[in-house]
C-alpha cells in the first residue's frame, strides 16, 4: 500500500492502479466533480503501524474518522504531530505516517484536489515545506468549518455538502483548472516513465513548466519520474519477488540500479529491505 501527495503509498497505488480496490473510490458528487480528483475511503486499522507517505504533487486532505484522533508523521527523522484533519502536497521524500489505533470498522477519508481548486478554496498554495501540515495551522478558519463533517454519522455526505457550499463562494482560474484536469487525466491513462506528458507537447514548453511548478511543485521531468516510480512500486507491492530488472524495464527505467536509487530517494530504503520489513 502507498500514500500519494502525502497520503499512505498503499492508498495512492490503490487509488491510481488497483482495480481490485476500486470500491475504495466513492462516487463524486456532480457539485464538486470539477474541483476534486476523487474522494476515497480506506480501512484505517488495515494500514498498519507505519505507512510510507508518497505524493504526486496533488493536494490531498486526510480526514480521520473522529475529531479527537491524532497521529504523527516522521519526515527524514523529524517528527510532526498531526490532528484529525491534515493535508499533504508537493514532493515527499523518506516520509512515514504513524496512524492512530482504531477499531476495524473506522474509515480513513482522503480527498484529492485539483491544485488550482485548492488554491482558490484556501486562498493560498498547498505546497509548503515540509509538505505535511495540520489544517488547523495552515488555515484556522477553514479548519473550524471542516469540523462540521463530524456532526452526525455521515462524514462523507457532510464533507461533500461543505465543499459544495465553499466552492460556490470562490473564483477559480479556469485556465489553470483546465491544465490540472488535462495533466491528471493523461497521467492516469499512462503512468509509465513520462509518456503521459506527450499530450502536453501541444502547449508552449515554458508555459507547461510554469504550470507544473506553480500547481504541483514539480517540474514536468520530476512528475514523469514520479509516475515511473509509482508504477514500479505498484508491481512490486503486488508481487515483491518480481525480478527488479524486469520491473525496471517495464516501467521505463534504464536499469534496475536506477529503480533501487529511486527507492532510496523516495523511501530511504532499498526495495528488498522495504518489502522484507513490510512482510515482517
From TrEMBL:
SUPFAM superfamilies: Homeodomain-like (SSF46689). One of its GO terms (molecular function) is sequence-specific DNA binding. Pfam families: HTH_18. Keywords: DNA-binding, Transcription, Transcription regulation. Residues 208-277 form the HTH araC/xylS-type domain. The keyword Transcription applies. This is AraC family transcriptional regulator. It comes from Sphingobacterium deserti.
